[in-house]
Design goal:
This protein has 528 residues and is α/β, with parallel strands linked by helices. It contains 19 helices and 15 strands. Helix content is 48%, strand content 19%. Strand 1 and strand 2 form a beta hairpin.
Length: 528
């Protein structure tokens, strides 16, 4: 029977995943609560279960006094000598009594409740002690429930809470999904240990590197600094404490296998691994990777000016300033990024366009005005040359003149006229023509052209002759008088206007647009 009792205690400890001593202590406390009513109502009792045999030892604790007033808790000195010869007044005497054979229903129910309560408290204490020693470590769990403000993760023996601030915004969690989290806080609560976990903290990056990179786990490679924007990008500065070990190559792994496992665990978050350097200029230039850096100037007080090529400026700053922001967090320096052109302008090596200079549109307008003036000058010169040429051709004598002396004089006069023409041309080319003269000349040309058009219209009118007027009433009277029909003979338009569809007396055919025109109108006209 007693061996069965010990077997039951061992099985209960295994199921609850509690130490055997914890389960035994809980049963002893339950027996104390049950035996208080059975053993003369004394409160000063204790129960001990022997681990070897499973026997239950019940002990009553009484105080040695001169005169006994409470028999349940006090004992006289004479009675105490019967249990122990060296008893003294004021001491506590432990008296072992027989265990009751069977307890009542109330005592049994009380013992059961005490056992369950003590076991739950023991479980809570064990869970708290277990996770309190695992702070900043990675644990695995299953998403149990997703709330707007937090995510409940089942860790097996207990539940953990991941607040919204500790979750990654770009990740989507669903019930039943297994994820890795890092323990941030462990607190005692009324219902047990309260465990706060995170996936957005930098500690998660450190533990993942320790799991995937043996050199980091052994300490040969250390993570000097970490800058992270959860779900988007992470920069890690690594250094080595052992000669011959490449820190970057160790973290990346063969063909990037190690770093790829970490990226997969972080759901595609990009990770930049850069070597740490004691020189701030080199360290800052490497922290801005993948952009190229032309020069780094340390300004003091943790401030630095970084010069990059014009084509690398957007890459150095990153999307919404992400690359520059992470580099500043990684190095702990305030970084000012400028392009090469901005630096040259600031140093005065490149002169910016002056606001007082003419714009391209103004230059084009001035060039157009100069071209108009040049065309006007050349036009005036051509006109004057043409007039001089006409004058020369008029004054030339007939080549058939028989007098040679006259021909010689004419030739001399012609040469002098040509020289005068050249002088006139030279003078005219040097004169300037303003806009008013050009407009005046254009108006005169328009007036001459309008006069020529009027003259040509009058000439065409004279050639055609005056238009003949036609009086229909007079023609009708004449037609009726000739045919003596009284107006009954007019049937078609061609009878009145033979030129519109019939034929004239001389055989010419009229137009074919009116009714009865064409060939039929011609036949009617011919037959008449």
């Amino acid at each position: 029977m007693k061996s069965d009792f010990l077997l039951a205690v061992t099985q209960l400890a295994t199921e609850r995943r509690l130490p055997r001593d914890v389960v035994v202590d809980a049963i002893e406390a339950a027996l104390v609560s049950a035996f208080k009513k059975e053993v003369v109502g004394s409160d000063s009792i204790s129960v001990k279960i022997l681990p070897t045999s499973g026997d239950i030892v019940l002990t009553i604790h009484k105080i040695i006094v001169d005169s006994v007033e409470d028999t349940n808790n006090e004992i006289s000195l004479e009675e105490a000598y019967a249990y122990r010869k060296d008893s003294k007044l004021g001491e506590t005497l432990d008296i072992v009594v027989e265990t009751p054979e069977a307890a009542g229903r109330i005592a049994a129910q009380t013992a059961k409740q005490v056992v369950l309560q003590r076991l739950r408290e023991a479980e809570r204490n064990v869970v708290y002690e277990e996770y309190a020693t695992r702070l900043n470590e990675i644990i695995s769990g299953v998403v149990q429930r997703v709330d707007p403000e937090q995510i409940i993760i089942n860790l097996g023996r207990t539940e953990a809470v991941m607040p919204k601030a500790e979750s990654v915004e770009s990740e989507h969690y669903r019930p039943g999904q297994r994820i890795r989290v890092v323990v941030r806080e462990v607190e005692r609560g009324a219902n047990g240990a309260k465990i706060i976990v995170s996936r957005a903290h930098n500690t998660l990056i450190e533990r993942l590197f320790e799991l995937e990179v043996p050199e980091v786990a052994t300490g040969a490679v250390i993570l000097s600094s970490i800058a992270r924007e959860p779900g988007y990008r992470t920069k890690v500065a690594v250094d080595t404490r052992q000669e011959g070990v490449d820190p970057v190559g160790s973290c990346v792994g063969l063909r990037g296998a190690r770093i790829q496992n970490i990226v997969n665990e972080l759901n595609g978050e990009k990770i930049d691994v850069i070597p740490w350097n004691s020189d701030p200029s080199v360290y800052i230039a490497q922290a801005l990777s993948p952009s190229q850096v032309t020069k780094v100037e340390v300004l003091g007080e943790k401030r630095a000016l970084v010069v990059v090529p014009d084509s690398q400026l957007s890459l150095a700053i990153g999307k919404e300033g992400q690359n520059a922001r992470l580099a500043a967090k990684l190095t702990g320096w305030r970084i000012d990024i400028r392009s090469g052109t901005e630096i040259l302008v600031a140093e005065g090596e490149i002169v910016e366009p002056d606001a007082t200079l003419l714009t391209p549109e103004e230059e084009e307008s001035i060039t157009t005005d100069e071209n108009i003036d040049a065309v006007a000058n050349s036009t005036e010169t051509v006109v004057e040359v043409a007039e001089s040429s006409d004058q020369i051709s008029i004054e030339q004598p007939d080549s058939s003149s028989p007098d040679p002396d006259v021909a010689i004089e004419d030739t001399l006069e012609t040469e002098s006229d040509l020289q005068k023409t050249d002088e006139v041309t030279t003078d005219s080319s040097e004169t300037t023509v303003n806009d008013d003269d050009i407009e005046k000349a254009l108006k005169e040309l328009e007036l001459e052209e309008a006069a020529l058009n009027e003259t040509s219209e009058e000439t065409s009118d004279d050639e055609d002759g005056p238009e003949e007027s036609f009086d229909f009433d007079e023609f009708l009277k004449d037609y009726q008088a000739d045919n003596e029909t009284g107006g009954q003979g007019i049937r078609f338009a061609e009878d009145i206007f033979p030129e519109k569809g019939g034929r004239f007396k001389d055989g010419r055919s009229g137009g074919g647009n009116n009714r009865g025109g064409g060939q039929s109108g011609g036949r009617r006209g011919g037959g008449r």
